[in-house]
Amino acid sequence: MKKSSIYIGIICLFLCVGCAKEKKSDKETITIGNKKEEKGVESSKTSSVPVQLDNKGIGPIKSLTFADHIDQDLASKGEQLFTSKCVACHKASKKFIGPPMVGIYKKRSPEWVMNMIMNPDEMLKKDPVAIALLKEYNNTIMLNQNISEEEARAMAEWFRTLE
Asked: How far apart are CA 107 and CA 157, in angstroms?
């Protein structure tokens, strides 16, 4: 009787593990300045958030074109701002309370990113991508930190260094 209970328990364990939500861990190379670093980025295969590079979002930023080279001074300011205002919910290279910033411009336009930073209240109500992200991250609302356009631009520049 004990052996059959053990076998049934092991089978149940395998079934539970096999039915768990499948996640994968990818390695991405992150370049910060001249330094390259390989970091794991955990992602879910079942993400329902669309990739929309043509969506500019809702807010004051209508157009943004990055220079060919990264402005390291501006990026450094952006990193400092991100560290002081955003790390409670965001990590640069992995999912946390909010999405990771690494590779953000492969999924979102620079205008969308800046509008989300500066105008999260309206974005979370009206923008389809922001609404999908809200659902994916357990309805955890991005707080409005009253970030200026200059500060958002600095953070946007720093995100470029994470590509």
From this structure: 16
The structure tokens listed for 68 are 């060919």
Which backbone phi and psi does 57 adopt, to 5 degrees? 80, -170
pLDDT tens sequence across 62-113 = 999 999 999 999 999 999 999 999 999 999 888 999 999 999 999 999 999 9
CB atoms within 10 A of CB 29: 10
Q: What token pair was written down for 160? A: 């470029």
Among residues 87, 77, 156, the alpha carbon closest in space to that of 116 is found at 156
Closest by CA position to 52, among listed 106, 99, 121: 106
The model's pTM is 0.70
Cβ-in-10-Å burial (0-12, 13-18, 19+) of 32 comes to middle
The Cα 155–Cα 70 span in angstroms is 12
Structure-derived torsion over alpha carbons of residues 28, 52, 58, 121, reported in degrees to the nearest 10:
-50
Q: Which of 111, 114, 108 is nearest to 53 (CA)?
A: 108
CA distance 112 to 99: 14
- C-beta pairs of 33-39 under 8 Å, 24+ apart in sequence: 33/72, 33/161, 39/93, 39/94, 39/102
